[in-house]
Structure formats: structure tokens, C-alpha cells
User: Fold this.
Amino acid sequence: MSTIRLHRTTRLTPEQYIAGLTDFGPGRSKLFGNSADEYLKVHHLDRTMADVTEGSGGVWERLHYDWSDPNRVVLVTTDSNVWGGTSGHTYIFKRWSDGTTDIDVVVVREGKNLKGYLLGFVLATIGKRVLSTAFENSVKAIEDRNGAASRSDKANSSLAA
Assistant:
């Protein structure tokens, strides 16, 4: 089992990021590169929950999304061709008084077959960089969509100082 932790500070509000995360329309792959449009199938969608199949590159998973808590979004893998057990994603948002938001993500990958075990091993060793880049790209894409990119770069620069 692999557990990957990611972090990003942005000028997006939690609501803006959640709106991007839960946009299951065409073009989702522009926000989330690991969610190719040809894999995307929305089984159920309501105001704070969804049941969605998504994936790319021969790997797919069915996820139960729950964004009923405005500071936390939980994605639980309910079916997949490679992932099982406790696989899923948890996004935690923390607002700061300067208008920035910390986004912490925990990705759990538990293989359910040989392909899943091998992918889980790769994620545990060198895969964090791949997931980190994908996460960075999703934040940037949602920032661009919301006009927050230049403000976010300033926020990250000032926080790093």
C-alpha cells in the first residue's frame, strides 16, 4: 500500500477548488490529466456527492465523492481494475487570513492485483513526483479558470520568503 501526501498553497478558495474537482463535464482532463474524457462516466450526482468512473492510460476507478464538509473532500475507490482496499483521495482545505488556502491531499493506493501492486510500488518509490506534478497542474488549471494564477504565484513567493 502506498500513501502519498501532497501540499499546495493557493489564492483559490476551497469552494473554487472543489468546484473544479467536482466538475465532471467534458474537458475534465484539462483540469485533471489522469481523468481522460473517454473514461469519464457519471453514475450519480447530487449537491454534495457523486459516483463517478474515471481514469486514463488503461487504469480506471469508480469513486464515491463526498464534499458535504466545506473543508474536506473524500474520494473513496469503490471499484477499479487495479486499486482496492482503502484506496482513495482526501483533500483538506485550510483558509488563511491573508486570503490564501492550503490544500493538503492524501492519496492511498492499495493494489488488488499484480498490476496494482506494481503501480503501488512505483508510486511509493518514484511516483510521488508524478502525482505532485499532476496535482500542481490541477491547481494551476483551476487558478487559470478562476483568474487566480498571478495572485497565487505571489502568495507562494511571499510564503516561501
Summary: The CA atoms of residues 8 and 136 lie 8 Å apart. The chain is about 35% helix and 35% strand. The helical segments are 14-21, 28-31, 114-146, 149-160. The first strand starts at residue 2 and ends at 10.
